[in-house]
Amino acid sequence: MDAFAEHRRRHPRLIDSDWLLMKDLAAAIESQAPRITRTGTTALDFGCGSKPYQSIFTSAGVRYLGADFDEHGDVSIDQNGRLNMADESVDLVLSFQVLEHVRDLGTYFSEARRVLRSDGWLMLSTHGTWFYHPHPEDHRRWTRPGLIGDMKCHGFAVVECVPILGPLAWTTLIRLTAACYALRKAGFAGSVVAGALAVVMNLRAWLEDAITPAWAKNDNACVYLTLARPVAEVGK
User: Fold this and answer.
1) 189-228 burial, b for 16+ CB within 10 Å, e for fewer?
2) Strands 90-96 and 116-127, how do they pair?
3) Nearest CA among 44, 141, 130 for reference residue 93
4) Count of alpha carbons within 13 Å of 128, Cβ hemisphere only?
5) How far, in Å, CA of 147 to CA of 153, rounded?
6) Under CATH, to which class is 2-166+214-230 assigned?
């Protein structure tokens, strides 16, 4: 199941309701990774889940470690959200679609800063807008300046903030996701209809995103992918 989940996030199918989102997020991570990776560095994926983007970093010669609460992790996270890892022991901290599920942002960011070397990078993605999706909790959505401001308050200066899917596309995907959820409850026939609908609506969303101007996407994105540096003092 984990291998399938990893493959689907990296290589979504057109019949998947989140095809466009997963495709564009993977492409953004892959395009930004060369800016922060070099052979021999160590990356920690903080809340790694099924490790869908591991190969992007290992193929660049990076030593990849996953951290999670369960058997998925190479590094354990205790019930208070703290990492079983020494201070300043990694060059990159990765965080993909985790932050919206974090109850205590202070602990999460302070642990990321603690294990990250002073010249390291944080690559983080999270939702600007989406359905409520507890895993096991779901707490927040961000505007672009809100996310940049929250990260600064918790000790990270954002160098790059990449918007993924503008409002025309993500409103289409939200309707598609809701329709597919209902259809797939109807058994095999419903799943077939859901797959066909996903093809049509995904292609529509792709076209909508292609014609959305940058100014609209920048501040109204479905997901933001950020690159950030640790700062010397929180709040500075």
Assistant:
1) eeeeebbebbeebbebbbebbeebeeeebeebbbbbbbbb
2) parallel
3) 44
4) 25
5) 10
6) alpha beta
Cβ-proximal residues to 224 (8 Å cutoff; 6+ apart), any chain: 125, 126, 128, 142, 144, 147, 161, 162, 163, 164
Q: Are 160 and 218 in contact (CB under 8 A)?
A: no
Domain boundaries, the chain: 2-166+214-230
pTM exceeds cut of 0.90: yes
CA 9, CA 13: separation in Å to the nearest integer? 9
Q: Is 209 helix (H, G, I), strand (E, B) or coil?
A: helix
DSSP 136: S
- Which uninterrupted H or E stretch holds 92? strand 90-96
What pLDDT digit, counting tens, does each position of 151-178 carry?
A: 999 999 999 999 999 999 999 999 999 9
CA distance linking residue 219 with residue 167, whole number of Å: 9
Closest listed residue to residue 21, CA positions, set 225, 222, 226: 222
Tens of pLDDT, residue by residue over 39-96, are 999 999 999 999 999 999 999 999 999 999 877 789 999 999 999 999 999 999 999 9
The three-state secondary structure class of 83 is strand
Across-strand partners of 175? none
Sign of the dihedral through C-alpha 43, 44, 49, 50: positive
